[in-house]
Design goal:
By secondary structure, the chain is an all-alpha fold. The protein contains nine helices and no strands.
């Protein structure tokens, strides 16, 4: 759908549609771990953002670019992208991406063994996430803090945050399962309704076809009967004409005698 949307946006030269579609395609490639394709799509979107000035999309793009660089262990690039994303998020007042970027930076500092900085950013990000009640980010913040405390040798706090991480992860998974079940149920109900409507339509079509067939059969029968009556009358007429001719000939013969 995003690819189709991008093609349509290009045809009508709709910058906003091109920007969003390219960014969404980049995120999809990132989720599929196709990092080169993701970067290409995101950079195309970023080029358009430089024209439109959409800071919200810019925050989204730099966050995904930071996530890609982090997974590729390009930590300096990742940190720079997260900071750019955070700045754009502050410009538009997006608490979501401020929290995401702070937790992303915490992960980078943890990977480079800067534990104190990692803990500071993780706590800040988690605090924002808790204020806006964004469960996905709360889950990620607790997961990062669990690893930070584990690396710091604080097993009790590591376990506490891990338990919170699992609780939010399970809650999100259950919600997603319910949503998938709801979607499947909706698909089932739609398919069932479609089948019922199709069956009703087929029955109506059969009845209609039978009526049409019966009408044509009746018409055909009427034509045949009419033709037979016509043929019978023609034969009767011809026979009467022949009989009259014979009578006339007999009368002529009698008059000659």
């Amino acid at each position: 759908y995003n690819r189709q949307g991008l093609d349509i946006a290009r045809e009508i030269n709709y910058k906003g549609g091109m920007e969003i579609s390219s960014a969404n395609i980049g995120e999809i490639y990132y989720r599929q771990k196709k990092y080169d394709e993701a970067r290409e799509a995101l950079m195309q979107s970023l080029d358009i953002v430089r024209e439109t000035g959409n800071s919200e999309t810019r925050a989204f793009i730099h966050y995904i670019l930071g996530s890609i660089s982090g997974e590729q262990k390009k930590y300096a690039e990742a940190a720079a992208s997260f900071r750019q994303s955070e700045q754009s998020a502050i410009e538009v007042g997006s608490k979501e991406y401020q929290a995401r970027c702070l937790i992303g930076l915490a992960g980078i500092f943890l990977a480079t063994e800067k534990t104190d900085s990692a803990m500071l950013y993780a706590r800040q990000g988690l605090g924002i996430a808790e204020k806006i009640r964004y469960n996905e980010i709360i889950r990620d913040g607790n997961e990062v803090l669990s690893r930070i405390y584990e690396q710091s040798g604080n097993g009790i706090l590591a376990l506490a945050h891990y338990k919170r991480y699992k609780a939010f992860a399970d809650s999100i998974n259950n919600l997603q399962s319910e949503q998938r079940s709801g979607a499947l149920l909706a698909d089932y109900e739609f398919a069932k309704k479609e089948l019922l409507l199709k069956t009703a339509f087929d029955r109506k079509q059969v009845r209609l076809n039978w009526i049409i067939f019966s009408a044509f059969a009746a018409l055909f029968t009427a034509i045949i009967v009419g033709w037979l009556i016509y043929r019978s009358r023609q034969k009767e007429k011809n026979a009467n004409a022949l009989l009259q001719k014979q009578r006339d000939e007999i009368n002529v013969q009698r008059s000659d005698l």
